Automatic annotation (TrEMBL), chains A, B, C:
Gene3D superfamilies per the UniProt record, alphabetical: F1F0 ATP synthase subunit C
Organism of derivation: Parafrankia irregularis
HAMAP family reported for this sequence: ATP_synth_c_bact
InterPro entries per the UniProt record, alphabetical: ATP_synth_F0_csu (IPR000454), ATP_synth_F0_csu_sf (IPR038662), ATPase_proteolipid_c-like_dom (IPR002379), F/V-ATP_Csub_sf (IPR035921)
Protein family (similarity comment): Belongs to the ATPase C chain family.
Site keyed Reversibly protonated during proton transport: positions: E68
Keyword Phosphoprotein part of the UniProt annotation: no
TM region positions: 26-47, 59-81
Keyword list, A-Z: ATP synthesis, Cell membrane, CF(0), Hydrogen ion transport, Ion transport, Lipid-binding, Membrane, Transmembrane, Transmembrane helix, Transport
Subcellular location per the Swiss-Prot or TrEMBL entry: Cell membrane; Membrane
Official protein name in the record: ATP synthase subunit c
CDD domains to which the protein is assigned, alphabetical: ATP-synt_Fo_c
Organism lineage: Bacteria, Bacillati, Actinomycetota, Actinomycetes, Frankiales
Residues of the V-ATPase proteolipid subunit C-like domain: 22-79
Function: Key component of the F(0) channel; it plays a direct role in translocation across the membrane. A homomeric c-ring of between 10-14 subunits forms the central stalk rotor element with the F(1) delta and epsilon subunits. F(1)F(0) ATP synthase produces ATP from ADP in the presence of a proton or sodium gradient. F-type ATPases consist of two structural domains, F(1) containing the extramembraneous catalytic core and F(0) containing the membrane proton channel, linked together by a central stalk and a peripheral stalk. During catalysis, ATP synthesis in the catalytic domain of F(1) is coupled via a rotary mechanism of the central stalk subunits to proton translocation.
Length: 82, 82, 82
């Protein structure tokens, strides 16, 4: 077996795939924790003042939208930076 | 043993696999912690105001759904970015 | 097969993609958690003092803007450092 053929086989066994998948995985770390904090503390706020349920849920949704956007942008980014 | 043969064996011992598997693993870190925060604080809210159990559990489920979606998208992403 | 051709095939099987995608993913970690903290504690502040909703929301937006800017800069950075 020549040197070039063995190098080819070595490449076949190496790690493969698109690094963009890892990028999305990392991009979910912060929003995953952040949205958890919003809804976790929001449930506590509603339990403390049940009559403020409407107001609390409105701000929970605003916070959820702006945080979740970061993760969804992470889904689009591998298409942008090809 | 020739140089080419030893290089081939070295390649057999190297790390192999698809980087998408690591991507999913990373994608579970944030949602895993986030859902934990939601249910942890939700249980505390129910313990503080047991009469608000229905309301608290509803918002816990809403928060759980939007956070868990991030991890499930991480399962699909390696199929998208091939 | 020549050495150059095998090296080319090896590149085809390796990890592909732009490392800038990973950079954006990392750039969302802090803002994702940070904005979650802002809105989570903001909802708690509004539930504690519902009459201070306007003031609390104003400062929540200020904090959100300066934190989210970090993530959006992370989207532009791969274009700057080409």
């Amino acid at each position: 077996m020549s040197l070039s053929a063995s190098a080819l086989l070595a490449a076949d066994e190496a790690i493969s795939g698109n690094i963009g998948t890892v990028a999305y995985g990392i991009a979910t770390l912060g929003p995953g924790i952040g949205v958890g904090i919003i809804f976790g503390l929001g449930v506590q706020a509603i339990a403390r003042q049940p009559e403020a349920e409407q107001v609390a849920f409105r701000y929970m949704l605003i916070g959820f939208a702006v945080v979740e956007a970061l993760a969804l942008i992470g889904f689009v980014v591998p298409f942008v930076f090809t």
